[in-house]
Specification:
The protein is α+β, with helices and mostly antiparallel strands. 50% of the residues lie in helices and 8% in strands.
Length: 208
Amino acid sequence: MKLYTYFRSSAAYRVRIALNLKGIEHQLEAVNLLKSEQQQAPYTDKNPQGLLPAMETEQGTIAQSLAILEWLEETHPDTPLLPSDPWQKAQVRNFSYAIACDIHPIDNLRVLKYLSGELNVTDEQKTTWYKHWIIEGFKKLEPTLGEGPFCFGEKPTLADLCLVPQVFNALRFKVDMTQFPKIAAIYAHCNTLDAFIKAAPENQPDAA
């Protein structure tokens, strides 16, 4: 399998963690978002959506990180990332989708580029936008968490795979994480595990 990735792509980061946790052999193929390589051939021949990540498999290419993660869960059920209980599974998905569908899309690179390039927003205003939506999202998620060490229980789930990259971005933009002690504690604990450490942006081959 080959994962098309960029070291600071939150969505690709999620998939890198999953591949590491499940011990799945894979290759990484860097696609530079800053150079807009995701919108150019040959990448768009693989993924016409022009977004990262994409997973190239023997059957073809899968786009969208959550679709990739669900496929990995079904095809490699060892080290499960979703609970077996339907109610608990729904809670994990609810938390994951809140990040992947509500927080991340309005703070990703193409939105920030549009704010700067088309709307002439200043860097300060862009940072204010970014931090606002992360803080608003985390305010809703913090009360739903227990006492850890992971988002839901004693093992990492899809929720942790979505949360860790979002916290990484929050820290990049200097969001004060002391207001979210549970989220901060989960992030710190996850980053003691090899699967998360190896997936971290600073440890990727294309990290500048």
